[in-house]
Design goal:
Blueprint (H helix, E strand, L loop, with lengths): L6 H29 L3 E6 L6 H12 L9 E6 L6 H9 L7 E4 L7 H5 L14 E5 L5 E6 L7 H4 L3 E5 L5 H14 L2 E5 L5 H10 L4 E6 H7 L1 H5 L3 E6 L13 H4 L3 H11 L7 E4 L5 H14 L3 H9 L7 E2 H11 L4 H12 L2
Parallel strand pairs: 1-2, 1-3, 6-7
Antiparallel strand pairs: 3-10, 4-10, 4-11, 5-8, 5-9
Helix pairs in contact: 11-15
Amino acid sequence: MRLRAPYGAIWGAIVAATLLLWSAAARADAVADFYKGRTVTVYIASGPGGGYDAYGRLLAQFIGAYLPGHPATVAENMTGAGGRTLANYLYNKAPRDGTAIGILQAPIVMDPLLYGKDAQGVLYDPLKFAWIGSLDQFTPIAVVMNTFGVKTLDQAKGKEIKFGSSGGDVSERLYANILNTMLGTDFVAVPGYGGSAEIALAMDRGEIPAFVGWYYAGMKRTKPEWLEKNLVTVLVQFGIAPNPEIKAPFILDLLKNPDDKQVVHTALAQLAMARPFTAPPLTPQDRLAALRTAFDAMVKDPAFLAEAAKQQLDITPFSGRQIDALLKDIYATPPALVARVRTAMEAH
């Protein structure tokens, strides 16, 4: 015998579903009504002309079309304190209504973890930001000229390998220190270079054989002949997940000690959110949801992707929810291992 649901239950389900749809539509209308005729400011934690500036202005150019109410958007640079000035502004002073967002310099999300919430100049808690998403993920590499005769990390052990350094860069110290202390290599920094272009030129000239900490996408874009003509070997790739395009060992696969793995994972976590955008804490949930939805739609827009390609900007999205989960994970790192992370990042 076939059982039928009582008419009252069916009618109740229909009413509930209708009310849910009306509620969702009302929320969407409220967000659209709020944004209509307003201006969203996209703050950029660097000066004009750099990578953060390029990504910030790219988002400002496109995201308004995907927000309900289609607000105008403007980009504004706010430099200072290695990006902390903007982080402090968004956290403490910016409007918390969805009209102020910013692209932060990714490494500063580690500050409260490494140096404590009362660290000088750190007036923000990354866990409380309203993260929207990141436009790119970085994959740093250690690369060596093939004329040096080293094709693997095992061959590198017991052999001093000099690499170009701009001096004072945390990432250069970090990557070399990981390799030297955890895998037994002997990479030695040669400071005094102005940046990646000068280091690459020095490698071409035979002044130095290696570069530790260059981003793979940057090498591929600016020195494609190195790969096309098999002039270099990528010894290892860094990050929290391997880049399948790179035919080189992944750092976490090379580490056998679980604590070493967690230290490196924590130290490198911010690479997954290399170009991150956030709104201030306590941004209304419906507007944050709209910002995240707009971001997710924007990164699939062919016009957006074409403009990014024209500017030679890699787009490897990492969603706001992924950022939330990542930060929750790394901020759960035990204090003893955090101390090791700090040591690795400060090593000379």
